Amino acid sequence: MRKTTFFALVIGGLLALGCGAGSSNASGGSADSDAAAGSGDSGGSEETAKTAKVGQAARDGKFEFTVKAPKCGVAEVGDKYLNEKAQGQFCLVTVTVKNIGDKPQTFSDSSQKAFGADDVEYSADSGAAIYANKNADTLFTEINPGNKVTGVVVFDIPKKAKLAKLELHDSPFSGGVTVQLG
């Protein structure tokens, strides 16, 4: 009985070490992605490089984002036959995403976040984005180096809420870049 318990503990420990090594590799990819965000900078502060305004290019990892002012207060997206209604209101954010890296990179709207003035976090609504976009450029798109796509990222927020900023990511694990909306 004791040998079985000992071996179970040893195997469990080895598995835990293996999982820990895997997670450090995953965070290592994140660090590489973050480091690439500043690779075009001339030594400016990291905070400055990680914040932009509507209409300004903002970089995170292998992507350069340019955001147009959001259109909020939208109750429904789609047409009269195929549509989705907002729980509160939809905010439609048009984003141009350019691959500034040297390898194909996948853009996903589900990696993007929006924040209200009270710092409440909102996730993108991929289901509504299907109806808001004529093509699926912002859903889950691989972008080759030098190419760019433009599409609408949709956020479903409470009727009386307002968006203050976006946090845009080149992947779910990247540090992100902030775009101030007001």
Automatic annotation (TrEMBL):
Q: Where is the composition biased (Low complexity)?
A: 30-39
Alphabetized UniProt keyword annotations: Signal
* Pfam families in the cross-refs: DUF4352
This protein's source sits in the domain of life called Bacteria
Matching PROSITE patterns: PROKAR_LIPOPROTEIN
Natural source organism: Asanoa ishikariensis
Domain (DUF4352) ranges: 53-176
Q: Which residues form the signal peptide?
A: 1-26
Outline the segment boundaries, as ranges, of region: Disordered. Answer: 30-53
Which Gene3D superfamilies does its entry note? 2.60.40.1240
The name under which this protein is listed is DUF4352 domain-containing protein
